[in-house]
Specification:
Blueprint (H helix, E strand, L loop, with lengths): L3 E6 L2 E6 L4 H7 L7 E5 L2 E3 L14 E6 L5
Parallel strand pairs: 1-5
Antiparallel strand pairs: 1-2, 3-4, 3-5
Length: about 70
Amino acid sequence: MMKKISVSINNKHYNIDEGSSLEALIVERKFSFDEIATAVNNSFVPRSKRSKYKLKNRDSVIIFSAITGG
């Protein structure tokens, strides 16, 4: 059986599988990859690094709408 860890996503607590990537979390929670930006523990995580970013117990994930323009 897979060990669980606790993370918060936009201030709501969830138990997820230990070793889960940020990308897996996004897929599991059904967020659209192209329309969001992500941060873990107040540090921006670019889309290109989400699949390799392994979440740890008590990480705080923020998922928000990406804003473009100039």
